[in-house]
Amino acid sequence: MAANLEVTSGQLKVLMGRDIPQLTGKLNTLGDNFISISDNLKKIDYANTFNEIEQTLANVKIVTEKLNSKDNTVGLLLNDPQLYNNLNATTANAASLLEDLKEHPKRYVHFSLFGKKEK
Fold first, then answer.
1. 87 neighbors 94 (Cβ within 8 angstroms)
2. Could you give the CA distance from residue 54 to residue 45 in angstroms, rounded to a whole number?
3. CA–CA dist 26, 18 (Å, integer)
4. pTM over the 0.70 mark
5. Is 111 helix (H, G, I), strand (E, B) or coil?
């Protein structure tokens, strides 16, 4: 039993001699990091930060209200299906006209280098 106690005591000395300094070093690093984080948190101007967040949210609310209303161009585009459909139809008509102009340019453009022909 005394031999076991002596072996255990020796192992404990080795363990403490090797692991305790490493553990102490890690705890010191952790403490330094905590102090650094704490110092950084102290430097933050929370009142100003919250005021800026509040102002940003107010601006987002204004933009959202404008997007939901029909008294501006973007609001109308988003909220008025008739305007959307009219714009789609106009775009389709313009595309069709351009295609016809490419296929039959003489229907739309009358050009003569020497002047108008006599009939």
1. no
2. 14
3. 13
4. no
5. coil
